[in-house]
Amino acid sequence: MDAVRTMLGCMTRRRGEQNGYTELLYDDKMGAMYSDHEPYAQHDAMTYSYQGGDCDHYDEKVEEIAQDVARLLWEAEWNDDALQSRISEAVGDQRWTRKMVEECLDNVIEYVERGRFEMGAAMCAALDKATDTADEEFAFPRRHPQSLDGFIAIVSVGVLAEMQGAWVLELLGFGEVQGKEELNGAGEIAMLTSDKIVFSPEPKPSSFAAWWSREYDAYIPHHSIYSYLINMDMVEVDV
C-alpha cells in the first residue's frame, strides 16, 4: 500500500486530448493525492467525458450540476441523509443520466488528484476504502507506473459509488440495478436508492467501463473488476 501511495504522491499530469476520452502524460513535479499539504495552484484535471459535438444549453446545465454535486461530496464531513438532500436540491428537476454521472466522475477525479488538502472527512473515508480495495485487486501501478491514471480513475469510481450509491455504476456501464423495470415507471427511484448492482461481465458498449477495460486490459487480472466491486460491497451476490 505504501508503495502505491508513494507513486501516487509523486506525479502530476498534462492532458493530451484524443478521440473521446483523454489520455494523460506524467512528470514528477507534484505529490498530492495522499498529502495534506496545499497542492500547486495550477492543476490540469483528467477528463473522462466524451468530447464530441457542440455544447448546448442542456450540456452546460448538466456540467454545472455535476460540478455542484462533486463539490458537495468533496466538502462533506458526513455521508448522511443531509448530504443526499443537498445533492437532490442541486440536481433539482434534472434526471440523472449517463452524461451527468460521467461529468460528476470527471470532477471527483479532479478532487482525488488534488489530494486530501481541505477534502472533507466523508470523501477521505471513501478514498481510503476505494484505494485499499483497488490496490488489493489490481496493484498494476507498482509494476506499470504509466498506468497510474487508470488506477486513479477506478479509485474515483469507487469513491463516487461509495458516496452516492452503487446505482451510478449502471450509468458508468458496469452492470444494472436489479428490479428497476418492475416498478411501473418508478425505475428512477429504484436506481437512486439502490446500493447494489447486478454485475455485467461485458461492460456496456461505449460506456466509461468499456473504455477503462479496453484501455487497461493488459494490466487487469481476470475477474479483478468484479472482485473490486464485490469487496466494495456494491454487487448483488447469489447465495
From TrEMBL:
This is ESX-4 secretion system protein EccC4. It comes from Dichotomopilus funicola.
